[in-house]
Every structure is written in structure tokens, then in C-alpha cells.
Amino acid sequence: MKILIIGDSFGLPNMPSHITEYSKELEIFFKDTYPNKLRQMLNNTYPQMEIEIINCCKYLNTTYDLFYYAQKIVYYQPEWIIFQIGIVDCWTRTPHHKPRFKEMEGKNPWVSEEEYIYNFYRIIEYCFKYTSVQNIVLVNISKTSQQQYDKHQGSYERTLKYNNSLGKIVKQFPNVHIADIFQRFELVDGILFSDGIHPNEKGAELIADEIFKIIHCICKKQEEKVSVIMLPDLLERNKIFRDCHKGKRCFIIGNGPSLKTQDLSPLGNEITFVVSFFYKHSIIEKWQPKYHFLADPAFFDGTEPFLESEHKISIAEFFNQLRTKLYSTSFFVPIWGAKKIVENGFLPFERTYFVPFQGLLSKGVSELPDFTKAVPGVQSVSQIAIMAAIYMGCSPIYLLGLDHNWLANWGHDPHFYGTSAMIPDKIPSFKSELEANLSLWYGYEHLLNLTTTRGIKILNATKGGLLDVFERVDYESLFEKKALVKEDEIKPQSPYPPNISTEQILQQRAVQLANQASPLVSQGKYADAIKLLDEAMYHCPRIENLQYLRAICLWNLGRFDEAKIAAVAEIRTFPKNQVVKDVFSHILPEWEYSSDGWRIKNSVAQP
Fold this sequence. Notes:
Elements lengths: L1 E6 L8 H4 L14 H12 L6 E4 L14 H7 L3 E5 L2 H4 L22 H18 L4 E5 L6 H6 L3 H18 L3 E4 L1 H7 L13 H28 L2 H6 L13 E4 L17 E5 L15 E3 L4 H4 L4 E2 L4 E2 L1 H11 L4 E5 L3 H7 L7 E4 L1 E4 L14 E3 L3 H11 L5 E4 L11 E4 L2 E4 L8 H23 L5 E3 L10 E2 L29 H21 L3 H14 L6 H11 L3 H14 L7 H7 L3 E4 L2 E4 L7
Parallel strand pairs: 1-2, 1-3, 3-4, 4-5, 6-7, 6-15, 7-8, 8-11, 11-12, 13-14, 15-18, 18-19
Antiparallel strand pairs: 9-10, 16-17, 20-21
Helix pairs in contact: 2-9, 5-7, 5-19, 9-13, 14-15, 16-17, 16-18, 17-18, 18-19
């Protein structure tokens, strides 16, 4: 389990700069901070699970800082994110306080309630749309000492308002949870150190415990998904795949070394089935496989490391790479691996399907495979993929990268990503290897006989290899000649001038999307328009009238809270924008436009 914590100074040691007027030594050390306390709690509860906590807390972090962590989120690809930010946003400020961003200059507080909600909305949507994050915990703003509230008038009232706003966010996202440390701090004394703001060791333990309870609860629910759901119910999920690709061709891709000589770029719009370590192929940077299959027990029982060409990889790291690289793929795994998958969060449950086995494919098969029931056991994961393709109604079924040339490479395991030497004491006898290959061939022959009588074609498009059961076909002949370009010869041409910056490219793309959406808004096609506008926002949110168009769409779609957030974002970013005046008069009745720009009615401009 990988957890990324993005917070403020609450997650850091009490550094000397905070305590010079209070004491002469640190009041809380790194080992006593809440991220480290959380790590200890999780390790004690889940000793068999690999727990990794990445502490990205920083002094004076606000919700404006959140998008500066977007690259870290993409890089680390955590399953969980803890956002512990807010007290710096809402705290009463004086002119001598210098904020980190220009947007906060001259404001008191630095971040308004509307901006606070909007900033969280943006980063949460980003996480769920572009990363492997499965759950997010929002730690609300904690209670400080009464002395601090007296000193910073208005901070207590804003704390209550900002915390209440977090509840609106949770209603919009089912996998977002609130850790209510404000209430915990209200009920317990002696939890703050001498500055009356930051938690001491006892306070840090309370924060960690509140977060831990949420993670533990979700983990228990995930574990119960397999234990509580009866096998027939679990298999009923597979019903959606019956004849889902009826009459369409598909490609089943193994990991044989022949893939190094075949161009896979034409498969971007095809139905593709891949297996095991295929995520190592560079082609996934251009297209995502439709389905991925696992079968080897070593992926689930943890009894042995995976020996590759240059390094060993743990089970947890394998699944982390698999889940990160194949971010939109559906996974098929043996039913006996379900508990391991769910307990550890190895794969997203909603995209993972389970397959039970009974009998052996090598002994024969008389009926088409039905994935809502047990299917024959296999000796190669490619055979599961073929049976799945049959169940989905595919024909013809093309095989790629199924070299099956182990006998020609005795003692080695060749793949497109390298050839590894097998562990000496794990190398089977040559006789047992012959028997295993013969059994594997029998399985393929039974699949051929089963499909031939029903008009389903299985053709081998592998370049070379020893698999001779299926009729051969030239892979290149399956595509137009113009599409056949060697992968190392592909040189993408940018439509932009070479001297243009990435920021300018993103801004141009956002403007294009907004211009495409504008006529849709005029035509009342709000659902279509909002998709384009949301995509534009991710490219470059600071474009005049972008949030204005979003507000119109959201309001007409009945998403009133989000419409208000978008409207406030527009007038906060472009306070002199008069174009929006007529529309925003009913979306934001509490705001008005004056010679100084937009402001809340009956209020004066901030100094």
C-alpha cells in the first residue's frame, strides 16, 4: 500500500524557527509526527503488507499549492492520498504576512472559502482522472487554542465554515473521506504544543488514528468483498463479456522475443489481449491494451521472486507497475488470487474479473468456455486469453508473440524484454519439459477443434516460433501497407513551432477546446460542452470566459454548487470581466459588479 501525504507543518517536526520564543529544544521530532505514527499503526495491523508512506508536507502549504504536487502524484502513483491542508488558507492575516502566490497578495484570509473548495475540486478530479489513486482522505482544519483565536479574530468562524465546505466535496466523490480531527481535538486536552497551534506527540497520534480508522475500514470492506460475495455472484460480473465483441477480430499478444521484430503500432484501435509482463513493452505509451491476463501462482502466493534479465522484483512492486502502466485495462485473474488482490489493493476491483478453473484443457473440452462458470485449467496464460476471446465472440483470433520456443532455449527464458537464465535448481528435467510442452500442445489442439467446428478462426501471426497447431498468417498483410512503419522509425511531428513552450501549447489547446464548446452551449448541448470545457480546464484553467462557460453548463445541468464554484473562479481570476454580468446575476446574487470589478454586495475592497 502506497500512501502520499500532502500537508502543511502539522506533518513535520517542530523546527527551531517555530519555537525560539517558547523553548530551547524541539517539542516534536520526526518520529513523533502523524505520518510516522500512521506508518507504525499500519505496520502493526498489516504486518504482511508492504506499507510505503511518502511525506510531502511543507510549511505554509495552502490549497493553491496542491496542483504543484500533480507531478509528484503522477510520479509516485499512490493508492491513497492524504490532504491535510487548510489552516493556512483560512487564518486571519496581517499586511506583514507574505504569501507564496500572487493570487493571495493583499487578501485576508489568503484563500477564500470559494477558492478553497474549488482548489480541492480540481486536484481531486485530476487524481481520479489521470492517476492510479483509489482513495483520498481530507483531514479537516484542527482546533487551536482559544488564545490563538482571540489573537486572530475571525479564524475560528472561518475554520467552521471551511470544514463544513469539505462535506460538499465528499458528496461529489464516493472515494473521498473526511478525517474529522477538529472534533477529536475539541474532546481532548493537552494535544497542542506551546505555540497553541501545532499538535504535540499526543495530538499527532490523534491525527494518525483518525486517518488510520478510515484506511482500516476501507481495507476491511475490500477484504469482505471476496469473502462475503458468493462465488456465483462474483462470476455473474463476467456476464457482461458474453459476445461483447461478436464477429470482431482481436489480437492475443504473448511476450515472446519475436515481438522485437514486429511493429505493434497498428494495433492501437484493435481489441488486444495481453499477458503477464507485457506492460514492459514501449508500445503502451501509444495505446492501452483492452484486457490483461495472469495465471502463474507466483503472482499471488509470494513464494518466489520473479527472476528477470537484470533484477528481481517483488510481488507488490510488480502489481504497482502493472496497475500504473495499464491504467485503463481490464484484468482477468484466477479466482484463488482474489483474496490476495483485494486485501492488498493490488488491482482496482471495479476493473478486475475472476476466473475459476476445473479440470484440464489438455484432457479435452466439448463446450465453448463460459466465464460465468469454471473453465478448464491451462498450462499457459495465453490459453486463458484465447478462451476469453471465444467467450467474447471474437473471430478471427490472431496470435502474436507466442514463440513457445523453450525447448530450443533450454535453461533460459526468452522474452521481448530480455532473456533470463533460470535458477539452476529450478530447471526441470528435459523429460518433464517435453511432457509439459506436449500437454500444452494438446490444449491448443482441443481449442482448435472446438472452434473449427463452430466457424471461429484462430490464426498464428507470430513471426517464427515453434507453435505449429494453428494456421499461419502474415502479420503485415493484416494492415494497409502505409501503416507499416518500423517502431524505431516513427518520428512524431509536432503541429506547433519548435520554439513554442509547453505552457503555450497547453494554453492553445485549451482555447481550441473552449471554442469548440461555445457553439454547443449556444445550442443548449450542455452535457457535450462540459466535457470539452473540463478537458480545457486541465490543460490551462486561467483562460478568460472558460469558467463562465462551465458555470452556464453546470447550472443548466442542475449541478448548482459546482456552477457557483466555477462562477466565483471566473470573477476571482478576471475581476474586470463584464461579459458575465447578466448571467452571473442569478447564479451569484450575492455578488455585484462595480467600477472596481466584482465584489460581494455591501462589502469594501480588501486593502
